[in-house]
Specification:
Elements: E1 2-6, H1 13-24, H2 36-43, E2 49-56, E3 59-68, E4 73-76, E5 88-89, H3 97-103, E6 108-114, E7 125-135, H4 139-150, H5 152-169, E8 172-177, H6 180-196, H7 206-217, E9 224-232, E10 235-244, E11 248-256, H8 265-279, E12 284-286, H9 293-298, E13 301-311, H10 315-334, H11 338-354
Parallel strand pairs: 4-6, 11-12
Antiparallel strand pairs: 1-2, 2-3, 3-4, 3-5, 6-13, 7-12, 7-13, 8-9, 9-10, 10-11
Length: 357
């Protein structure tokens, strides 16, 4: 087994094409966050981005996108902005995680959204979480039948809000947007939402907006940014930024005009997105990890993602592991104390604005 570590821009067209074929050959893992285009977009903004190419003789068996940070601390590509992580590989790959980390010069590799069927990486999993999703095998009509059966009250309330919004404010229109000002609107709303709730503002760092803009222009590499907007009487009331592959749409950032909050415009937009996705042949919508009530009402299934850390076991890994453990302890201690949690998140936000991209 031979493992070569490259900067993502060093991958040949043949290698990226093989990566894409491996991804599409496993429909359950054909997520745009795992696509070569996502890795290459991140690499253009983060010099720490790397890709391990795994070979056995002349055969390429897999690709491992990652970031190498201080002291050999490894992270998934696009760390902090990646909702599906893992190794893209042939089913017959047999590899020891220790050998992979050693070849990548990593002491540890942290993850928080490890996808399913990852025999090389899964030994590091410490926790499992659910990621609500919508399967669209039955098309839009099949999905509506599911909502009628599973969430009838939710569907009735949503339709009532739709009628009320149209009667009071004007006609609704859903469309895909690629205008820069549409993305600016989403970022402005989302920033205000983060700060109002005491959450870390992801858009305080230039990396985030730059990545979204780059992916919105991408047309190759199996990963395209998709901005969907719901308009009412010509005015934008909700925006959603997704990543799109041939078979999977991964919802990423949703925001709405707070003046329309009583109409649940984000929910109305999600239903429009689902209808449009079914029409274009999308097989799965991944709504992202979490127990949000809206996701629970809209979902047809749950995907399972892993959280944990792989390590090589030497002193450097122990130092990194100590820092990770301290962070997890802070999260656990503040989980049931909203005021303390809010203060901690504001501090983290202030520190983030001082960090390099």
């Amino acid at each position: 087994m031979d493992i070569t570590v490259l900067s993502p821009e060093e991958l040949t067209p043949a290698q990226t094409a093989l990566w894409q074929r491996l991804l599409e050959g496993d429909p359950e893992n054909a997520n745009p966050f795992l696509a070569p285009g996502y890795t290459q977009a991140v690499a253009a903004l983060r010099p720490c981005a790397r890709t391990a190419v795994i070979r056995d003789g002349p055969e390429t068996l897999g690709f491992f996108p990652f970031e190498r940070h201080h002291l050999g601390a490894g992270k998934p590509i696009g760390w902090g902005f990646n909702d599906c992580q893992g190794l893209i590989h042939r089913p017959d790959l047999r590899l020891n995680a220790h050998d992979l980390l050693a070849a990548c010069e990593l002491a540890t590799w942290d993850f928080d959204h490890l996808t399913a069927r990852q025999p090389v990486l899964d030994p590091g999993t410490q926790l499992h979480a659910v990621s609500p999703a919508i399967r669209l095998g039955g098309g839009w009509s099949g999905y509506l039948d599911h909502l009628h059966a599973r969430s009838p009250a939710f569907l009735r309330k949503t339709r009532a809000k739709t009628r009320k919004l149209q009667q009071r404010e004007g006609e609704l229109e859903f469309r895909y947007d690629d205008a820069p000002e549409a993305l600016d609107t989403l970022i402005r709303w989302k920033t205000a939402q983060f700060r109002a709730r005491g959450y870390r503002d992801h858009f305080a760092r230039p990396f985030t907006g730059a990545l979204l803009r780059a992916l919105l222009l991408a047309r190759t590499g199996g990963c395209t940014g998709l901005l969907s907007t719901l308009y009412c009487a010509g005015r934008p009331v909700a925006c959603q930024y997704s990543l799109l592959s041939r078979q999977v749409q991964a919802l990423w950032f949703t925001a709405y005009d707070p003046d329309y909050a009583s109409y649940s415009p984000g929910v109305l937009l999600n239903l429009s997105i689902t209808q449009a996705a079914a029409a274009r042949g999308i097989r799965l919508i991944d709504m992202g990890r979490g127990e949000d009530p809206t996701k629970q009402a809209l979902k047809t299934t749950d995907l399972t993602v892993g959280q944990g850390q792989l390590r090589r076991g030497h002193a450097r890994a122990a130092a990194i592991r100590g820092g990770s453990a301290a962070y997890r302890s802070v999260v656990a201690l503040t989980a049931n104390h909203p005021r303390l949690r809010s203060a901690a998140l504001r501090t983290a936000h202030a520190v983030d604005t001082l960090r390099p991209n």
